[in-house]
Amino acid sequence: MEKSYIVKQISIFSENRPGRLAAVAGALRDAKINILAFSIAEADGFGVVRALVDRPEDAHRTLTDLGFRVSFTDVIGVKMRDEPGGLSDIASILGDAGINIEYAYAYSGKDAAILILRVDQVEDAVRQILDRGGELLKASLSR
Amino acid sequence: MASWNPRTEEMPLDELRRLQFKLLKSLVYRLYSFNDFYRRRMKEHEVHPDDIRTLEDVAKLPFMYKSDLRDGYPDRIFTAEQNELVRYHVSSGTTGKPTVVGYTERDIENWSESLARAFSSCGLGRGDVMQVSYGYGLFTGGLGAHYGAERVGATVLPTSVGNTERQIELMQDLHVTAIACTPSYLLHMGEVAEKMGVSIKNDTDLRMGFLGAEPWSEQMRGRIEDWLGIRAYDIYGTSELSGPMFTECTEQQGIHIWGDLALVEIVDPATGEVLEAGEQGELTITMLQKEALPMVRYRIGDLTAIEEGTCACGRTHPRIGRIRGRVDDMLIVRGINVFPSQVEHALLEIPEVGRHFQIVVDRKGALDSMLVRVEVSEEAFSDKITELMVIKKAVEHRLRSSLNVSVDVELVEPGTLPRFEGKSKKVVDRRSL
């Protein structure tokens, strides 16, 4: 049950220099892979590009073949009310349940704002959110 | 392994020393009598062949340097006439103007004999297929290993360097059992093979490698042996000595330097004073039997030590330890001596980073800064920045504690650091003084 809400995010190690994001994005474009949401986390000299795509396995293979270091991470996508308090609802549910958010990024989906979350107890988080009436992105969105 | 030439290789030490003295004495007389360069050099140094009364008296003779070969370019210090030469080799000139080395028929014969002894001490012989992936041509590696392997009756596959995928196909198809190449190139081959879906360990008959032409470490040996399922032997030589001439035996306890061909000394790089066995210093060699270009007390620039005593294999000739680096590629960073081999040594103990690295030295204001670029290994890659930063800090800490100098580490994408098919150049020194 919970598993059907666990989405595979691809994470790509990238040096922090001009052209690297273009190389990642270009490769996905050439493979006709659609990016649904993405973010970049940056550190000293390097960064990690995180993305939800429609075909994660293909994206992983395409980028690995180009020499990128790529890994999969389990995340969840929570539909947020697109109005004041939307984020607060979700953060409170997880906070109350003692689940830690490791990182998050948001994007504006077709019918709702979506918050992508990497949490320390992913199945627990799914259960808590569903129990409290929250809505989650189906993993099938990214096959 | 049985000796190729047991009478010489297992000669009692005192007998070997008597032979060396005899060879040295006649070499010095020959050079003094028939060669202007050596006679002038010995006179300047106030030494006469009659002053050589014991083997230790070799220390009375003047040193030779690479600059002597350059100054005598191309063949002015040769001790044979052109019509006696059967071959030339020319050095790559990585550290300056190239140098030319000439060979008489007997020089080629002794070179092959030297490697025949070396290869057979590791068990190479009839029935083996030796892939020679050192460069052929002006570089001595390819032809040297080629002649040595043919001499012991192995079948030689002269692939030279490059076209790696084809090399791997041939390795499989022709059931190659041994390879001679640089350690960096073998690592590169291993990676290319994996990309092709070939495991050198499981899908080939390769069982030994003769790796050299650049310094490498004991940790690197361990990694190569485990990963590729072979025995990896250190091979040593430089064009001035002929080319690759010496290897370890199956004991892997130092490189056997055949005493009847080469007289080894280890000297203090700064003072030139001869050091005791076991002490690290600059390798200095006198080629006792070379006809075209003998090289007397030649300061090779490689740092190592002599290993004492008869080897467990029964061979009596002196051995040298792993080459620790070169006198001239030693980096001085904030007054501290740093060898690239030390960096490699430290990195190989850290599983989170790959096998390749690059050192960049720069000067910011008055202060040297040292940056080591490493590739994040597949297993270690995490999408969490904090975990990557922990790896970076751990590598910095490790390098600082082993080099005694602070180091910045940069994590780079896999496959972006230069791979080398020949000699690797792992240092970029951007300081201008």
TrEMBL record, chain A:
CDD domains: ACT_Bt0572_2 (cd04882). Residues 9-72, 75-143 form the ACT domain. Pfam families: ACT_8. This is ACT domain-containing protein. The lineage of its organism: Archaea, Methanobacteriati, Methanobacteriota, Stenosarchaea group, Methanomicrobia.
TrEMBL record, chain B:
Signal peptide: none annotated. CDD domains: PaaK. Residues 79-285 form the AMP-dependent synthetase/ligase domain. Keywords: Ligase, Nucleotide-binding. Pathway: Aromatic compound metabolism. The keyword Methyltransferase does not apply. GO terms for biological process: phenylacetate catabolic process. It holds the Pfam family AMP-binding. One of its GO terms (molecular function) is phenylacetate-CoA ligase activity. Its EC number is 6.2.1.30. Residues 335-431 form the AMP-dependent ligase C-terminal domain. InterPro entries: AMP-bd_C_sf, AMP-dep_Lig_C, AMP-dep_synth/lig_dom, ANL_N_sf, PA_CoA_ligase. It comes from the Archaea. The keyword Metal-binding does not apply. Monomer. This is Phenylacetate-CoA ligase. It comes from Methanoculleus marisnigri (strain ATCC 35101 / DSM 1498 / JR1).
